[in-house]
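Hi R.,

As promised, here are both runs. First protein below:
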Amino acid sequence: MTCYDVIILGAGAAGLMAAIEAGKRGRSVLLLDHAKAAGEKIRISGGGRCNFTNLHTAPANFLSQNARFCVSALKRYTQRDFIDLIERHGIAYHEKTLGQLFCDESSKQIVGLLLDECDRAGVTLWTRAKAGRIERLEEGFSLAIERGEGRDRFTCKSLVIATGGPSIPKMGATGFGYDLAQKFGLKVIPPTPALVPLTFDEMTLGKLKHLAGVSLDAVVSCGKTRFAEALLFTHRGLSGPAILQISSYWRAGEEISIDLLPQRDALVLLKQARNERPKQELKSILSELLPRRLALHIAEELEQSEAPGAFGRMADLSDKKLQRVATALKDWRVLPKGTEGFRTAEVTLGGVDTDELSSKTFEAKKVPGLYFIGEVVDVTGHLGGYNFQWAWASGHAAGQYI
């Protein structure tokens, strides 16, 4: 039976960071992952360029039942700290939009950086390895590890769970971490897909299917939460950054409101068009403000709400009718049926209840030596590099204590 100071399950962003930090402290570390290579989610992220952090990272960019839990880790390892690491390794990067930082070349550079740091820290990395039965010992843990044809038992003083959530199952994602937490008596907030496209019912799809492929900048709102980014109509419903963002807040049965003309006064524009081009049709005016297919759809919706020809020439439209058009443009309401689920979700909402963990060390309060970090914890970031920063920060924090 082989003994390590630390065994980490999951060689993603959080697991790699925790392994590096523990190894730098002289701890013997075994890092395991069931995939064929470490950092697979890092590799595919950001269109292959990895949106590795965000310049504007702050606690307000994260969802959790305990909004304060993430504060300590994010303060102790900031976006600037990870940027410094990137720069020390000579990796060129750029800001895309809204503080999102991407590699100029490839996400493989981030994986390579982390693996180099693991090597320097003396970390033992095994891929294509699975943890079997895990048992608690008087001091530490015992676990069976399957690798290839072999199966051996190992012990460790600290066991770190960095296995993520069930998002993107084609990458091998599972709810393993939640099952293990519950086995040891820890509460788990039921996981749901986050940063995921929204879907429509068959009737709504029938009305909107001709809009598939249309995209535009919009402000999407659900309750008091709103995001101003791109929106995309798909053959299943809605996607694009604005929709992915709002999906973390949307709940079944709720409408979402879409401002199709952000930062523009629709009523002023419509009255101006009526004065200057009274003989033009409303649909022609709308086609100047929106993508043509969407403009024609909005005009048709308005027609169907009254009578054929009711929203024809601009000269024939009263102020009251123009207000209705403006409302359709600034507060277009849709009722999603659901989401595309974990299959396309970028992350998971929910996870191991933060009340069960120390925000300083990430150790389970009830189970000394057991740690949970990264996506498996009930902390979920907005789209734009925030979830990677949470992985770096939580992994770094736990790495100082494991």
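And here is the second one, sequence first, then its structure tokens:
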Amino acid sequence: MSISKRTAIIWWAAGLFAFAVTIYFHIPLITDGVPGGISEHQSAPDAAAVDAIQNSWAAGGLMSAAKIAMGTDLIFIGIYGIGCVLAGLHYRARSGGGGQVFLRILGWGALVSGVVFLITDYGETIAQFIQLTQFAGDDDLAGFASTLRPIKMFTWSTGFLTVLAALIVDRFSTKAA
């Protein structure tokens, strides 16, 4: 399967744009009662913590905003994750020596990061969204989401850095050729 660089980078860049949009929708959820905003909900270890966060948002009239923010998160996850996977597939398929070997390694990194990011962030966000729509924390769902959060954060970062590094290496290896 051959993925064009253009297609991969359009998806990845669109994912970064979707991330910026998602952050915009998350900002209103940062309140005096929930200073960590959506991050606090993501890392809430149990039902009591989720309930306290959601009650604070409800008292501030922010439940609709929270649902919209999590909805934008679900869209961002798909676009960005697919972008990392496509970039990974593109760079993994490179042939030749020198910088091409490094590009293949970066491609594998982006591919694995993208897949694991998709799985963990969708798992975390769906667990959050269920609690939000039911307006009830759940120990199992909260524990699941908070367990996935560090993995999701790591794979978001590694996906970003490996694609960025691949773009830089590709740029300089193309100039050298």
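A quick note on the second one: Residues 82 and 114 are 7 Å apart (CA to CA). Let me know what you think.

Best,
J.
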